[in-house]
Design a protein that fits this description.
This protein is α/β, with parallel strands linked by helices. The chain folds into two domains: 173 residues, D-Maltodextrin-Binding Protein, domain 2 (3-Layer(aba) Sandwich), CATH 3.40.190.10; 93 residues, Periplasmic binding protein-like II (D-Maltodextrin-Binding Protein, domain 2, 3-Layer(aba) Sandwich), CATH 3.40.190. Helices cover 42% and strands 20% of the residues. It has twelve helices and eleven strands. Strand 1, helix 1 and strand 2 form a beta-alpha-beta unit. Helix 1 packs across helix 8, helix 1 crosses helix 9 and helix 9 packs across helix 10.
Amino acid sequence: MRVGSQKGGTKALMLAARALDGAPYKVEWSDFPAAQNLLEALGSDAVDVGLVGDAPFQFAYQSGSPARAVAATQSEAREAGALALVVSGNSPVHSIRDLVGKRVATTRGSIGHYLVLRALAAAGLPPDAVRLTFLNPSDSRAALQTGAIDGWSTWAPYTAVAMAEGARIVVDGRDFSPGIGFDVASESAIAGKRAILADFLQREAKALEWANAHVDDYARILSGETGLPLPIAQVTVRQNRRRRAAIDAGLIARQQVILDTFRNAGEFTTRRPITDAFAPI
């Protein structure tokens, strides 16, 4: 099983919970800085499965990705900063309106991108009211530190790192995103590795429950696996408590808001049926 993992994501979770002990198959891990990179690998059949946020998945699917969502997770009791638009500590910016005409970095098609568009719409501002700069997380972090950008819309653990370095939240993602994520699998894995996928997803669900019950233990292992300082790993774990969620009609219907947000911003014009994006296992 070839599994893609974002920084501080599935790999650290499964290793911390020892969820793969006794698995009758080998897991080959690939690490990615953001969901977009992982989804590109899924689309090209370079990995079999990976966990991503709902916004990047919907963006990739409407952009033509052949991958499908096979399972879902739902964040619970999220703390401030799990998803946020942050600015430097000495910035005069205190609201999305203060960023009109200014530079905001994020990754194209990411939950950060979605957050900016939703925040603008909620404030009655057009999608082009800010100058979006599409960068990967490491480049965005450097740009915020040097003042090359005015804001950064990102997610944990990057938010935790940024705030530890003095950044502060201007827009909190809890106001705009329910924290849904999807395990997304390639077409070939769904067709040819269904039994293995089902076993892996069951183990992942148990790992999520373990992580929720062993926050400190998980944070220590997450720190060791990712190189994140322990205090930042602890914040990241608290910000990302998740459980398995059913892919049902209600969950699928809530995804329409994401599609409408990206479409209204002119990010894509395709209209692939939203129900076709899901192949629950």
